[in-house]
């Protein structure tokens, strides 16, 4: 069920929609809020409350739900409604295969470009450290998602960036498996900084090696959290 806090967040999103807000734009907003954890896995996406919060028609919202379902972020349950998808251990393994291929490939592509803008990566690293200083580990997780999106964006490809947004939205669904704790999220910070240092020095090969190792470690962490949750 959508919470009052989630509805308030969506109400603030209303200006992001054009006067004739499209289903694609609505889906983009909901995807972002799922990525941020506003709507956790298993939560019901209430058609009346979301429609009212965003000021869009039910038909537009239903179209956006269909787009999210196609992206594997939402599921429609007969006579119950639309819910944020809950993932399985197989989903975790498969998604991390996709992430290694896409993110490591993005770094290889970036190494071929004449110029590479690292400012978004730097901003994500700063945001992660600032959130850690405040003890806000959920925000550290959000900064991590931003970091990996920035890695994908280094490929300078609209399709790669779009793929990363979808993949990372699914990844964020996994974070519900682990509590927002320092033990879970703090190791991400050092890994981000190491990768950024290599990229700043033009060391794309070592950065890719560190990234692949990082993604394999993150996969193991989440699989272990999944197993603990099932016990």
Automatic annotation (TrEMBL):
Coiled-coil stretches noted in the UniProt entry, renumbered to this chain: none
Name of a matching Pfam family: FCD
Gene3D superfamilies given in the database record: GntR ligand-binding domain-like (1.20.120.530), Winged helix-like DNA-binding domain superfamily/Winged helix DNA-binding domain (1.10.10.10)
SUPFAM superfamilies xref list: GntR ligand-binding domain-like, Winged helix' DNA-binding domain
Domain of life assignment: Bacteria
InterPro entries: GntR_C, TF_FadR/GntR_C, Tscrpt_reg_HTH_GntR, WH-like_DNA-bd_sf, WH_DNA-bd_sf
Protein name: GntR family transcriptional regulator
């Amino acid at each position: 069920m959508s919470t009052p806090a989630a509805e308030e967040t969506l109400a603030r999103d209303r200006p992001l929609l054009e006067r004739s807000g499209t289903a694609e734009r609505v889906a983009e907003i909901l995807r972002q809020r799922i990525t941020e954890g506003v709507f956790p896995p298993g939560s019901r996406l209430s058609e009346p409350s979301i429609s009212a919060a965003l000021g869009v028609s039910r038909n537009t919202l239903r179209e956006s739900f269909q787009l999210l379902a196609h992206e594997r972020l939402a599921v429609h349950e007969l006579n119950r409604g639309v819910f944020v998808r809950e993932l399985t251990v197989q989903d975790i393994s498969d998604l991390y295969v996709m992430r290694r291929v896409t993110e490591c490939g993005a770094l290889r592509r970036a190494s071929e470009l004449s110029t590479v803008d690292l400012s978004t990566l730097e901003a994500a690293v700063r945001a992660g450290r600032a959130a850690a200083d405040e003890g806000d580990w959920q925000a550290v997780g959000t900064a991590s998602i931003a970091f990996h999106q920035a890695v994908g964006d280094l490929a300078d490809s609209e399709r790669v960036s779009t793929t990363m947004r979808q993949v990372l939205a699914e990844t964020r669904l996994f974070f519900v498996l682990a509590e927002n704790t320092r033990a879970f999220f703090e190791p991400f910070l050092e890994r981000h900084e190491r990768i950024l240092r290599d990229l700043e020095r033009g060391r794309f090969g070592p950065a890719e090696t560190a990234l692949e190792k990082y993604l394999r470690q993150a996969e193991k962490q989440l699989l272990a959290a999944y197993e603990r949750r099932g016990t």
